[in-house]
Amino acid sequence: MDTKYIANIPGKGALKRILIIGGGFGGLQLAKKLDNKHYQIVMIDKYNYHQFQPLFYQVATAGLEPGSISYPLRKNFQKRKNFHFRMCEAKYVVPDQHIVRTNIGDIPYDYLVIATGCDTNYFGNDALRETTFALKSTPESILLRNKILLSFEEALTAKTEEERKELLTFVVVGGGATGVELSGALADLRKNTLPKDYPEINFNQMEIHLIDGSPRLLAGMSEKASAGAAKALTKRNVLIKHNAFVINYENNLIKMSDGSELRSRNVFWVAGVAPNGLPGMPAEAYEKGRIVIDEYLHVNDCKDIFAIGDTALLQTDKSPKGHPQVAQVALQMATRLAKNLNGKIKNKRPERFAYQDRGSLATIGKYAAVADLGPFKFSGIVAWWLWLFIHILTIVGMRNKVAVFIDWVWNYFNYDVSLRLFIRPKFSKIYEEQDVE
Ligand SMILES: Cc1cc2nc3c(=O)[nH]c(=O)nc-3n(C[C@H](O)[C@H](O)[C@H](O)COP(=O)(O)OP(=O)(O)OC[C@H]3O[C@@H](n4cnc5c(N)ncnc54)[C@H](O)[C@@H]3O)c2cc1C
Q: DSSP for 129-173?
């Protein structure tokens, strides 16, 4: 890739420039904690906002506004000197020249931090990218919400029973936290909200299937949590299928690895993540797409390049397969790296990264959640309140915390999510389907 031009960013003077790619959990935390008196900080991201991914499923199921879980990156740094944001996409890194190629030109750096996170993993079956719906960005959450609402509008006017049945069958693929949370939220919609909006639809016909490739849900959590999630979903009439992989989805027909088939027009793919790597570094810097780092979060053999969060792979004796791809890891890596880079100015020796696992939570629906907090493993209403509390605390931005709190209180008392708006962007694959012939 040839150098085109240098992106328009103010000069750094005598300061060293730290270029951060990605304003997600890791990148944002790092930028906040870096010493901006001694560094010029340049952050780039494809979007101009931070996305609170754990609550995408609530946007998709009309429980929250997209704006409540997205926060403008510039707003975080309005009063910050030596900070510059550019909305653009990093394409390639040239380590020898200390340059990142982007769609707005080349950006030179002194230190580069790659915090690009992950995207949806289709496990090599790229046709599924076109036919199913993912949940890895705010725009995808809105698309999913539209798809869900559109299915009910279309079910009312379906020409045949077969068509109506396909429209009312919802299939969630992937039994991790997102799959469990999405299935639970769909079940709550079916019970509390949708029958009021669509009294002409027989909601006994609405089926929610959760298809999971592993033998138990929430495979990353304890067996107690898996059992608790399965029990709460079964109580909500979610049909769970284990040890089955979706191998094909065409013409509204899902084919699974165990030979079974299912007809549906709503297939939601939350089965795994693939790293958003950045090409250009030597082959040894990558393993299965993730960027290999050492305990100082430094990319092996690449001077002045670091990687943090979901895209980084740090293999230690304690975590031989790397750390879990969760927000806590990204936040803690960012904090460690900020301390090390700030310490560099004072000639302090960098310290190794050591992950403190603070536990995991997943919610299934009202009053139902599971928690693994060290030796304490529990489920039910206490776990649910804890889940609500932690999410309110961690959402970025005071306005967003208040907005989420108000929506949740409203839903709690009214059994009614309030955001069932079908706002269609102009171009999308789902809108073609409803064209009247
Ligand atoms: C639906 C869902 C639910 C989740 N639930 C939980 C949960 O309950 N608890 C939990 O701990 N974790 C959860 N996670 C995982 C958690 O969100 C991630 O671990 C965390 O976001 C990782 O942070 P990160 O900084 O590495 O990447 P991200 O937060 O993903 O940020 C990456 C950023 O990089 C940007 N970017 C990517 N490529 C480029 C490029 N080439 N150029 C410019 N910008 C780029 C992206 O736009 C994005 O803003 C969930 C994830 C999803 C998708």
A: HHHSEE-SSHHHHHHHHHHHHHHHHHHHT-SSHHHHHHHTEEEEE
Q: Is the shortest distance between the CB of 149 and ligand 1 below 6 Å?
A: no
Say if CB 298 and CB 313 are below 8 A apart. no
Q: Which of 89, 130, 140, 181 is catalytic?
A: 181
228: Cβ below 6 Å to ligand 1? no
Q: Is the pLDDT at 436 greater than 60, yes or no?
A: no
Encoded amino acid at 123, one letter: F
Range name among 1-10, 134-143, 310-319, 350-359 with the lowest pLDDT average: 1-10
Of the candidates 191, 216, 149, 162, which has an alpha carbon nearest to the alpha carbon of residue 368? 191
DSSP 8-state code for residue 205? G
> Any residues with CB less than 8 A from the CB of 150 and at least 6 apart, and which?
422, 430, 433, 434
Radius of gyration of the chain (CA): 23
What's the token pair of residue 374? 């060290």
Give the per-residue pLDDT at 3: 54
Query: From atom 31 of ligand 1, which residue's Cα is the shortest distance away?
Result: 24
Instruction: Give the ligand 1 atom nearest the CA of 278.
Output: 41
CB of 323 closer than 6 angstroms to any ligand 1 atom? no
Q: Is 161 a catalytic residue?
A: no
Closest CA to 38 of 298, 306, 347: 347
Neighbours of 157 (CB within 10 A): 11
Which domains, and CATH codes, for the chain? 16-46+88-117+276-345 (3.50.50.60), 127-273+360-422 (3.50.50.100)
Q: Determine contact, residues 234/240, Cβ cutoff 8 Å.
A: yes
Q: How far is CA 209 from CA 110, 172, 186, 265, 365, in A?
A: 50, 6, 10, 12, 16
Write down the pLDDT at residue 404: 86
What 3-state DSSP class applies to 85?
Answer: strand
Q: Quick check: CB of 21 below 6 Å from ligand 1?
A: yes
**C-alpha to C-alpha distance for 112 and 300, rounded to whole angstroms:** 13
Residue closest via CA to ligand 1's atom 52 equals 53
The letter for the amino acid at 387 is W
Q: Whose CA is nearest to atom 26 of ligand 1?
A: 309
